């Protein structure tokens, strides 16, 4: 939503956005970053599990997990739990909003209607750009197939089979659901990075790991680390894909190093990221970043003789792992396959309808000219 809150003669713009967030990823974070730039205070509406299941299919994360994950994104000031799936003028007025913000992809109800139709007609709707190269559909497909092609060769037959099975329906390819390659740029990293240097009095804390499929377990861990100091400056070391695959095995990581970098940078508890951090923490690394405290997500990656006196084990109270998320998907494989195909079919129906309307307008113009 984008609302105006009057404080005397001062008008503060308060943007907000209503999103499904059935699986929170860096593409959603990028939408929130863009929405926040439209005003001063960002309110995010997050739907319940029941609403998502009704209109889209089973969510990957539970509503409690999604609420907390969205709160942890650094551009978010407030969330509305249980936001309605269809955004109406009544909803905007309830929160004193001028207009709502959504990505440039389309969201449809269970019967194929645009969820923002009413607010679009009233002129109280704004769009931000969709992040190319990522979608919940694609990530679910990666987990179902567990292929390594998403790291190396997007043109491989295995990956093409993945896009056909999980990201595209039989009648065509939707631009919103289909898979495209994620291309990292320095500008994108700068947009996500805080750009803040550690200040005098800050406690510099280093943590390291894969941070794959950034989820509530990671959030709870980083929040617990953040509470270790009054003025924490957390540096997260991310291991390269090959290193993660070495110690995790199978076909991990699901997300490549570039995707994982943006996911972690979007977290409000993280100040800086080391891209391609070494698995073994060395004295040189600790000295380089002037680390006062050190913790790690990966066991046995630190020589105790080097870290003695500053190494801490932090219990987040959450045992959720990337493996657990993958198992959720595999357990409900048929449901997720049906969900992705149904979503694709609805989107293609809208695209065909838009195409027909455009053709009719062109015919009318041609008749008028003649």
From TrEMBL:
Residues 21-140, 207-291 form the Cytidyltransferase-like domain. Pfam families: CTP_transf_like (PF01467). GO terms for molecular function: ethanolamine-phosphate cytidylyltransferase activity. It is an enzyme of class 2 (transferase). Its EC number is 2.7.7.14. Keywords: Lipid biosynthesis, Lipid metabolism, Nucleotidyltransferase, Phospholipid biosynthesis, Phospholipid metabolism, Transferase. Belongs to the cytidylyltransferase family. Pathway: Lipid metabolism; Phospholipid metabolism; phosphatidylethanolamine biosynthesis; phosphatidylethanolamine from ethanolamine: step 2/3. NCBIfam families: cyt_tran_rel (TIGR00125). GO terms for cellular component: cytoplasm. InterPro entries: CCT, Cyt_trans-like, Ect1/PCYT2, Rossmann-like_a/b/a_fold. One of its GO terms (biological process) is phosphatidylethanolamine biosynthetic process. It comes from Scleropages formosus. This is ethanolamine-phosphate cytidylyltransferase.
């Amino acid at each position: 939503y984008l609302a105006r809150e009057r404080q005397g003669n001062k008008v503060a713009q308060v943007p907000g956005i209503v999103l499904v967030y059935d699986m929170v990823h860096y593409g959603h974070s990028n939408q929130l970053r863009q929405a926040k730039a439209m005003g001063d205070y960002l309110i995010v509406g997050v739907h319940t599990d029941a609403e998502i299941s009704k209109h889209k299919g089973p969510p990957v994360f539970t509503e409690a997990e999604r609420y907390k994950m969205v709160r942890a994104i650094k551009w978010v000031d407030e969330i509305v739990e249980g936001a309605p799936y269809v955004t109406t003028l009544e909803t905007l007025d309830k929160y004193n909003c001028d207009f709502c913000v959504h990505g440039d992809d389309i969201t449809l109800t269970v019967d194929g209607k645009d969820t923002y139709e009413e607010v679009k007609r009233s002129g109280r709707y704004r769009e931000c750009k969709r992040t190319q190269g990522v979608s919940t559909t694609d990530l679910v497909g990666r987990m179902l197939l567990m292929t390594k092609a998403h790291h190396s060769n997007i043109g491989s037959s295995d990956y093409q089979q993945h896009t056909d099975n999980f990201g595209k329906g039989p009648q065509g390819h939707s631009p919103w659901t289909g898979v495209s390659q994620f291309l990292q740029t320095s500008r994108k990293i700068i947009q996500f990075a805080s750009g803040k240097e550690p200040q005098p009095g800050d406690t510099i804390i280093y943590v390291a790991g894969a941070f794959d499929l950034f989820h509530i377990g990671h959030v709870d861990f980083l929040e617990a680390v953040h509470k270790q100091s009054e003025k924490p400056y957390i540096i997260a070391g991310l291991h390269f894909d090959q290193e993660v695959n070495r110690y995790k095995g199978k076909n991990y990581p699901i997300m490549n190093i570039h995707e994982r970098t943006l996911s972690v940078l979007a977290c409000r508890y993280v100040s800086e990221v080391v891209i391609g951090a070494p698995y073994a923490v060395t004295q040189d690394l600790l000295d380089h970043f002037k680390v006062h405290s050190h913790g790690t997500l990966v066991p046995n990656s630190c020589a105790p003789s080097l870290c003695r006196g500053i190494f801490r084990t932090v219990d987040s109270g959450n045992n959720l792992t990337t493996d657990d998320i993958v198992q959720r998907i595999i357990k409900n494989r048929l449901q997720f396959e049906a969900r992705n195909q149904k979503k694709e079919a609805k989107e293609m129906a809208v695209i065909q309808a838009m195409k027909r309307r455009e053709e009719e307008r062109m015919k009318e113009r041609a008749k008028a000219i003649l």
